[in-house]
């Protein structure tokens, strides 16, 4: 009984604190905002939770405090940064013009994090589109990619983003080209034109970029049908994981007979690289009856592969391929 009463009292006190903080924040008290952000650094999870709830509950009404939350995006404490970002998102369209101006500022880190906030706002951040388009030409590569991600999240209905984003595929850093490929995915779900960006990425000099493009096309499944010829060329890619991922993507799209793809996977089961063997075993689960041609090799892996994870995966794949149909 005492434990129950204590729990009820604790909940009551927490609610009372949130109400009190809400009243203060409604009055746009900057000092209160700073105290709550400082409370997010507490070692006590209850105190951190109280502060986060108070901040997020009233953020839509505390728009005058946006500079404090903007400053907090650079805080060393991750929980402070995350809560500040969510607070800015909840403030909505009213602060978008202020955030858009930050994109033209000197701080690279702040520009990236503001772009993330704008993207999370979705259509509420439409007024930031011109600033984000300008940010696509920023000297900082990561700022360019974060701007691209934000644009796609804010206006996925815009097919004209395809030619705007295309120059970013020429970025000198492969990791940024990879990020762009993933940014294009929601655009490709709506616009066939965006598939052209992914097809270009399939021919990128960096294997990681090609791998990302293949993975995205696989998730698009039937919508990626126009890219089948380009994907089939990746079956001869110099990188084994790209070849296996291309098989998986083609199986997801469904227009290439499984029996034509299984030999590539069977060969990969004998690769020296455990990562390659593991990927091949997993993709074989997509092949249906055609995968039975690899049963002998799967049994060998299940019994004697030096990697215990591969042995387990091989057993799972054998069970799936041997299921009655």
Would you kindly provide a written description of the structure presented here, covering whatever features stand out?
With 325 residues, the chain is mostly helical. It has a domain at 31-155: Leucine-rich Repeat Variant (Alpha Horseshoe), CATH 1.25.10.10. Helices cover 67% and strands 0% of the residues. The chain contains 19 helices and no strands. The longest helix has 25 residues, at 2-26. It is elongated and about 70 Å long.
Distance between the termini: 57 Å
Instruction: Please identify, by name, the CATH architecture of the domain at 31-155.
Output: Alpha Horseshoe
Radius of gyration: 25 Å
Order of helices and strands: HHHHHHHHHHHHHHHHHHH
CATH superfamily of the domain at 31-155: Leucine-rich Repeat Variant
Structural class: mainly alpha
In DSSP terms, counting alpha (H) and pi (I) runs of 4 or more, how many helices?
A: 19
Total strands: the figure is 0
What's the CATH C level of the domain at 31-155? Mainly Alpha
Per DSSP, what share of the residues sits in E-state strands of 2 or more residues? under 5%
Calculate the mean pLDDT score and round it: 89
Low-confidence stretches: 1-28
Shape: elongated
- Biggest β-sheet: count, sense, barrel? none
CATH fold naming of the domain at 31-155? Leucine-rich Repeat Variant
- Level of helix content? 55-70%
